[in-house]
Amino acid sequence: MKQYLVLASLLLVHIASAQTLKQNLEKAYAHFEQDEQLNYGISSLAVINASTGELIFSKNGTTGLAPASTLKTITAATALALLGENFTWETILGYSGDIVQGTLTGDLILKGGGDPTLGCSRYAQTTKNVLFEKWINAIRQTGIKKINGRVLVDDRLFGTQTLPEGWIWQDIGNYFGAGASSVSWNENQFGLIFQPAATTGSPTKLLHSEPQIPYLKIINEVKTGEPGSGDNVYAYSAPYSDIIYLRGTYASDLKKTILISIPDPAFEIAFRLQDTLKQLGIQTTNTPSTARRLIADHIQVADSCRIISVHQSPRLKQVIDPFNQKSINLYGEILIKTLAWKQGRTISTAEGVNIVKDYWTNKLGININAMNITDGSGLSPATRITTESIAKILASAKNEPWFNTLYQSLPINNNMKMKSGSIHDVLAYAGYQPNVNGTFLAFSFIINNYNGNTALIRQKMFSVLNTLKQ
Fold it and tell me: Final residue of a domain: which of 278, 312, 346?
């Protein structure tokens, strides 16, 4: 009898707590909705008890909105579920032809396997110096001293379309718009060093790029901006282009390296590797190239090679962390293509997105029309998803063995574990928050087409989200 009374009391406390939270959310959200910064916009909030799956609060929760980078939480959860925390990508170094008396008659081939971390400095085993040392040692062990051929990077795995459909022209030349190539290098980005002029509106001087890329033509049209105006530099280029236009403004008091995307990362690594071999005295007779370039010139590319080195990427659980913490769009797009590849589908963004939608429809019963997703990172303004869908997926993740990897990957914003997202006139947050009673809440909060100051509306969103802490 006593045990029954205790259980009944706990149930009543739980119900009362949920009702209080709902009432507090209704009050806070009603006030938020009336804010003049949303006069011509729309907002949506969904909150779910992650332990029970109970929908505690939902306003416009079934309306599809642009989620910006909060979509990364869904891509990450799907990848962890279907690929596993210990999944790795593989990059193969090999050669075609034969080696006779130190001369390779054939090509030195680097075969891409989708690894997004090659050449990046986030992990000790992926830095440029470590990888080149590893590959050079493997080449030397074969006895190769000269190459009657070329350095060839095989970039066929993910096809030639590196960008999702719907990404905008203003984004794709910048570091956050880098395409998902079969072979990535330094997260498919490089830096630019500017010198502003003494007067606002005057042309800036492009001092140099880091590294120097002699095969690219960079045209600088950037003007000097007012002090405190920051970085408003945009790079305009397309995949595989050899010309880049720089436009916008660079503040007169700014001291910052501007990062932009590499149009052809596969060729960049071919160029760097062949240049390194040249410096070490290993000459090649042909210019570096990629499988895409050779195929475009109707030159046959071998499907296999003699393997001399295999590089394994960091495990997926290690990749998910910077994916969410640093909001790396490239990782999201490669994850989407990898999902299509490993699920036996045509390797494309569209098929990868279909896998994401199918998985959560089958697992949680989410209507497929509630997930009108077009990419893996949320950069596309065409992507639409409901806050209830995001919150349901995050709540479901709480019961998975990989949950801690997802949870720890989320940044801390407003002293809450949540991923932020922002594109033009879009601001969003998604994550988790335990309230004072220990109830673990999953939530998604999105606003579209707000007006006015972003920092101001952000604080107003935080004020609503603070209700979850009560």
Answer: 312
User: Burial, 35: exposed, middle or buried (Cβ in 10 Å; 0-12, 13-18, 19+)?
Assistant: middle
Q: Check whether residue 243 and residue 281 sit in a common domain.
A: no
The whole model's pTM is what?
Answer: 0.94
Q: How far apart are CA 77 and CA 390, in angstroms?
A: 11
Residues 308, 414 within the same domain: no
Q: Which domain holds residue 232?
A: 169-261
Domain at 285, CATH number: 3.50.80.20
* CATH code, domain carrying 459: 3.40.710.10
Same domain, yes or no: 458 and 366: yes
The one-letter amino acid code at 320 reads I
End position of a domain, from candidates 196, 231, 261: 261
Per-residue pLDDT tens digits of the chain, which is 470 residues long: 556 554 444 444 555 556 789 999 999 999 999 999 999 999 999 999 999 999 999 999 999 999 999 999 999 999 999 999 999 999 999 999 999 999 999 999 999 999 999 999 999 999 999 999 999 999 999 999 999 999 999 999 999 999 999 999 999 999 999 999 999 999 999 999 999 999 999 999 999 999 999 999 999 999 999 999 999 999 999 999 999 999 999 999 999 999 999 999 999 999 999 999 999 999 999 999 999 999 999 999 988 999 999 999 999 999 999 999 999 999 999 999 999 999 999 999 999 999 999 999 999 999 999 999 999 999 999 999 999 999 999 999 999 999 999 999 999 999 999 999 999 999 999 999 999 888 999 999 999 999 999 999 999 999 999 999 98
Residue 413 and residue 325 in one domain = yes
Helix, strand, coil percentages (3-state) for the chain, rounded to 5, are 35, 25, 35
Query: Distance from first CA to last CA of the chain, Å, rounded?
Result: 32
Q: What's 149's DSSP letter?
A: S
Statement to judge: residues 231 and 195 lie in one domain = yes
The answer to whether position 18 is within a domain reads no
Residue among 171, 160, 127 nearest 264 (CA): 160
Token pair 């330094």 in the structure block, residue: 186
253, 298: one domain: no
H runs (alpha helix) in 113-235 = 128-141, 169-172
Spatial distance between the Cα atoms of 250 and 194, rounded to a whole number of angstroms: 8
CA atoms lying within 13 Å on the CB side of residue 354: 11
- Looking at 70-222, which runs of residues are DSSP E strands? 90-95, 98-100, 103-105, 108-111, 146-148, 151-154, 189-195, 205-210, 217-220
